[in-house]
């Protein structure tokens, strides 16, 4: 049979993966924030979550204060907010629907059920007594999706685009997580080294499911440099930027070689450069030059990779992000 | 212990194939062992499964819920081997005649010259496509996929209500319904041999291969869909998967030098055969509606050049029209020299003086339909019409008889259907699907639609219709 992947399908599967990854990360962040992020007065601060997603402006246009219930509604159930979990899963499903001919029945069914359950969430589910369980269910549904995908998605070109999407999104999410925490925490000189500070870094690790691995690998205890280094440069941690960039780089190379694809050299070059930049410096050097600047560069490279992939494979004229906006409109 | 499924069932004077006659005794006995409670339980589980799978059709008027589950009734509709053999022969005869008619209309038009069908009926029809004149198709097959709507009258006689020779839908429900029955009612099916419906996709693909351009020795097939917002998108997915071919939308295709290509991750790849689920009007803005966003500019040029096959062919809509329907028994006799195996619903063609007189004399008993209108507009149902409506109808008939046909009111047959806490008779029809490449094959059974509202004759999914699994006993 003909081994052909439509440009449109490649785009759909790439974004399906990204949206599920995004939803999972957001559920992790909200959960950890609800549980562990208390400031020195014991009040949970939701502002960092808004900053992390660069949503402050949009949020404060519509809401007076970042109280827990308002922020949670904004990020979990609000379909008018494009960065909510409900929107991410809605978009994942819309992409999956267009892709249905290539997806297993199980993949579609699980995503459809997941979507319906997210769409049915209301304020009761966001109350603090239920919140952790609900976010846990969302996280697990994302992981179930990943497992079903692993077990049933045909390993052809589409599979490569799926995992390219997953890793690029994950890398982006990890840089955001790191960027905002570092930015927020470091300037408060009085807090550095205090137990609150350690708590914040622990929370950061938990958001990325890295708390226990960190303990195991980094024996020097929890330090800002240790955590930043771990999340950025650890070659074995599944959410580190280095691992995600390396995997994306490897997958793209394999995809192009296996299927003799002409396009994609720009994206490959960009990914190679990203990988090299992560391998060239120690965390000390990165911190010395400025973590924020470094993360900014990584993010710009990730955006460039997506644009290159879009131009090379998703083709046509307008850009991929714009079509995704139309899809969810 | 609640009542068993058929213990209180009464077809109330209508023909019911499941409970009348003795061909289905075994299945009746099996149903008798189930309680209504059990049936309800399993129906609820089946419904939940459909919901999880998002097996849906779109209701355009309901913008908040574009996805809706088509109601599924768990009591199967059963056809005996003998009934099916008769039905199958009738459908094949009908499809054969339709293809002969279309080839003739787009070539020599002998049937018009012979005076069997009036020329103005064809040439005045918007679905007649002059650009198809003289285009030769492989095996002279125009209608590759046909859905023939059948009903039974109060005596159980099967008759043709309508031919669907454009882009008939519903076959995905046939297969999904069967799969659901196999999961929900393994006990009901134990020891009962049913004709398989699993190879629809393969048969369809084989027929498409039959009509591929001769140049393509390893043809590339695609299914062309209007996209995710179309009411039948679920079915398009189903068919693409069953055939193992890409599902494309208009923007995936491009025509260069009268050849069709699809946009892939590795550039343009040639396309040879298109199973299109887009109406003629929207296929190609260069040839038909210029405002169509769904189609592919230049597609018709490539088609007429013989570089791509379209299934169904362009221009089949002229043959499944209400006006032409009335002539189908004559069409069958003209081309095949046979009597129709499946009769039409008795139809009076009012452009003919005797038929007009009969219609005028029996307006209170007849259904009068304008031939040009679509979607049930302008229909007068005699037994339910007021005196004023009858008078209006009479005036219109006399003024323009050629625009009307009339038919008797048919007492549609019923089938036992789970309604709330009980099993009640509901009206049903049957749409078998015929696949034609070099020859014709009919999917055993077909789609049984059921009007879920009490007394309703409307089986359409958009108006409270549901579906049943259709069993053909092997």
N-end to C-end Cα span of chain A: 36 Å
- Output the radius of gyration of chain B: 23 Å
SSE-based structural type of chain A: mainly alpha
Helix content of chain A: over 70%
Ordered list of secondary-structure elements with their pairings:
The complex is a heterodimer of chains A (329) and B (474).
Chain A lengths: L6 H30 L10 H6 L3 H7 L5 H9 L8 H15 L5 H15 L3 H4 L1 H25 L4 H29 L9 H13 L3 H7 L6 H10 L7 H18 L6 H16 L2 H7 L1 H24 L5 H9 L1
Chain B lengths: L24 H8 L3 H18 L2 E2 L10 E2 L2 E8 L1 H25 L4 H4 L5 H5 L21 E8 L5 E7 L6 H14 L1 H4 L10 H11 L10 E4 L8 H11 L3 E2 L4 E4 L2 E6 L2 E4 L2 E4 L3 H4 L15 H6 L4 E3 L10 H4 L2 H9 L11 E2 L3 H9 L4 E5 L9 E2 L5 H13 L4 E5 L5 E6 L2 E10 L1 E4 L3 E3 L4 E5 L13 E8 L2
Parallel strand pairs in B: 3-22, 6-7, 6-11, 11-12
Antiparallel strand pairs in B: 1-2, 4-5, 4-19, 8-9, 9-10, 13-16, 14-15, 14-16, 17-18, 18-21, 19-20, 21-22
Helix pairs in contact in B: 3-13, 8-9
């Amino acid at each position: 049979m003909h081994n052909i992947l439509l440009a449109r399908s490649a785009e759909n599967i790439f974004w399906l993966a990204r949206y599920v990854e995004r939803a999972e990360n957001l559920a992790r962040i909200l959960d950890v924030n609800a549980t562990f992020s208390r400031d020195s007065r014991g009040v949970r601060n939701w502002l960092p979550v808004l900053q992390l997603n660069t949503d402050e402006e949009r949020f404060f246009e519509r809401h007076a204060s970042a109280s827990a219930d308002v922020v949670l509604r904004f990020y979990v159930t609000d379909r008018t907010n494009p960065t909510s979990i409900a929107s991410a899963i809605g978009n994942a499903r819309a992409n999956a629907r267009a892709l249905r001919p290539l997806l297993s029945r199980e993949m579609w069914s699980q995503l459809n059920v997941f979507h319906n359950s997210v769409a049915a969430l209301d304020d009761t589910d966001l109350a603090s007594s239920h919140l952790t369980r609900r976010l846990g269910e969302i996280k697990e549904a994302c992981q179930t999706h990943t497992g079903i995908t692993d077990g049933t998605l045909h390993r052809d070109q589409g599979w490569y685009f799926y995992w390219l999407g997953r890793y690029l999104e994950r890398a982006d999410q990890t840089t955001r997580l790191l960027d905002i925490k570092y930015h927020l925490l470091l300037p408060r000189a009085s807090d550095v080294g205090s137990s609150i500070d350690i708590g914040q870094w622990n929370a950061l690790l938990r958001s990325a499911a890295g708390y226990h691995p960190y303990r195991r690998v980094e024996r020097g205890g929890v330090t800002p440099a240790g955590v930043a280094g771990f999340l950025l440069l650890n070659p074995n941690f599944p959410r580190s930027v280095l691992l995600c960039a390396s995997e994306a780089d490897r997958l793209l190379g394999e995809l192009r070689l296996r299927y003799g694809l002409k396009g994609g050299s720009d994206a490959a070059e960009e990914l190679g450069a990203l990988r090299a930049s992560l391998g060239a410096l120690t965390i000390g050097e990165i911190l010395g030059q400025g973590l924020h600047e470094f993360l900014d560069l990584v993010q710009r490279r990730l955006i460039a990779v997506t644009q290159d992939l879009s131009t090379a494979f998703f083709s046509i004229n307008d850009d991929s992000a714009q079509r995704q906006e139309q899809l969810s409109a | 212990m609640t009542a068993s499924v058929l213990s209180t069932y009464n077809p109330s004077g209508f023909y019911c194939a499941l409970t009348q006659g003795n061909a289905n005794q075994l299945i009746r006995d099996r149903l008798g062992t189930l309680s209504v409670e059990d049936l309800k339980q399993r129906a609820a589980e089946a419904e939940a499964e459909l919901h999880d799978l998002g097996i849906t059709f779109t209701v355009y008027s309901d913008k908040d819920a574009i996805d809706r589950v088509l109601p599924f009734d768990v009591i199967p509709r059963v056809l005996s081997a003998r009934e099916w053999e008769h039905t199958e022969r009738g459908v094949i005869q009908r499809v054969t005649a339709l293809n002969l008619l279309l080839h003739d209309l787009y070539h020599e038009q002998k049937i018009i010259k012979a005076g069997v069908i009036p020329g103005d009926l064809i040439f005045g029809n918007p679905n007649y496509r002059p650009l198809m004149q003289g285009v030769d198709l492989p095996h002279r097959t125009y209608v590759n996929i046909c859905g023939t709507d059948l009903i039974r009258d109060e005596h159980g006689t099967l008759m043709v209500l309508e031919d669907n020779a454009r882009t008939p839908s519903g076959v995905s429900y046939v297969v999904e319904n069967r799969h659901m029955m196999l999961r929900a009612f393994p006990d009901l099916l134990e020891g009962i041999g049913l004709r398989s419906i699993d190879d629809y996709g393969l048969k369809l693909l084989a027929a498409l291969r039959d009509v591929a351009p001769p140049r393509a020795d390893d043809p590339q097939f695609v299914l062309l869909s209007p996209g995710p917002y179309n009411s039948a998108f679920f079915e398009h997915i189903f068919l693409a998967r069953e055939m193992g071919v890409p599902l494309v939308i208009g923007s995936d295709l491009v025509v260069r030098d009268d050849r069709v290509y699809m946009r892939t991750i590795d550039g343009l790849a040639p396309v040879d055969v298109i199973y299109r689920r887009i109406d003629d009007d929207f296929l190609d803005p260069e040839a038909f509606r210029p405002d169509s966003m769904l189609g592919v500019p230049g597609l018709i040029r490539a088609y007429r050049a013989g570089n791509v096959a379209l299934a169904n062919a362009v221009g089949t809509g002229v043959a499944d029209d209400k006006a032409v329907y009335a002539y189908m028994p004559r069409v069958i006799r003209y081309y095949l020299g046979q009597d129709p195996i499946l009769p039409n619903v008795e139809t009076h063609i009012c452009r003919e003086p005797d038929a007009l007189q009969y219609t005028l004399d029996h307006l209170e008993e007849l259904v009068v339909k304008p031939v040009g209108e679509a979607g049930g507009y302008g229909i007068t149902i005699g037994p339910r019409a007021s005196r004023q409506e009858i008078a209006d109808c009479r005036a219109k008939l006399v003024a323009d008889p050629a625009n009307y046909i009339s038919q008797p009111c048919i007492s549609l047959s019923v089938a036992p259907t789970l309604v709330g806490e009980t099993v009640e008779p509901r009206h049903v029809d049957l749409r078998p699907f015929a696949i034609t490449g070099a020859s014709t094959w009919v999917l055993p059974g077909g789609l049984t639609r059921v009007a879920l509202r009490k007394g309703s004759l409307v089986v359409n999914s958009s108006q409270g219709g549901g579906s049943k699994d259709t069993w053909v006993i092997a």
